[in-house]
Specification:
alpha+beta; Rossmann fold; four-stranded mixed beta sheet; 4 strands; globular
Amino acid sequence: ILYKDYRELSGKFDKIVSIGMFEHVGKKFIPVFIKKISSSLRKGGLGLLHTIGRDTPSPSDPWTFKYIFPGAYLPILDEILREMGKNGFSILDIENLRLHYAKTLDQWAENYENNVEKVKKMFDDKFVRQWRLFLNGASTGFKYGTSCLYQILFTKGLNNTLPATRSHIYT
């Protein structure tokens, strides 16, 4: 397991997993990221991209991108898939875990409120309000808006040795 900046990655790998960082590379670096994965994954290798995104074009939330995640960009699924296709990836499975993530955010918000007095000792009132707004607003976005949490399973090129369904995961 390597924990490092994708731009510093060297070598070839059988499997690559990216969890919760793709949305932070920014729109102009999507091709750079996908090319780096392509050059690092062996032919037939398996990759998983776990990222927040959107299923349709929609306005971005300028407040979140100013105060919580500066420089971030929530890609549309089609943007990701087109770039993956250009780099020779074969998509095996796409799952949208948006309602799971809404529950995660709800739990984080509850934990935040249970510990808000500790937070107030470390940060000012503005910070406390911003994170309260972010956690609750983000949950709403996953429940009722265009926010999605994608898990995209792919191979570099074709790999016909993998199971054809998800059933092996659940048995």
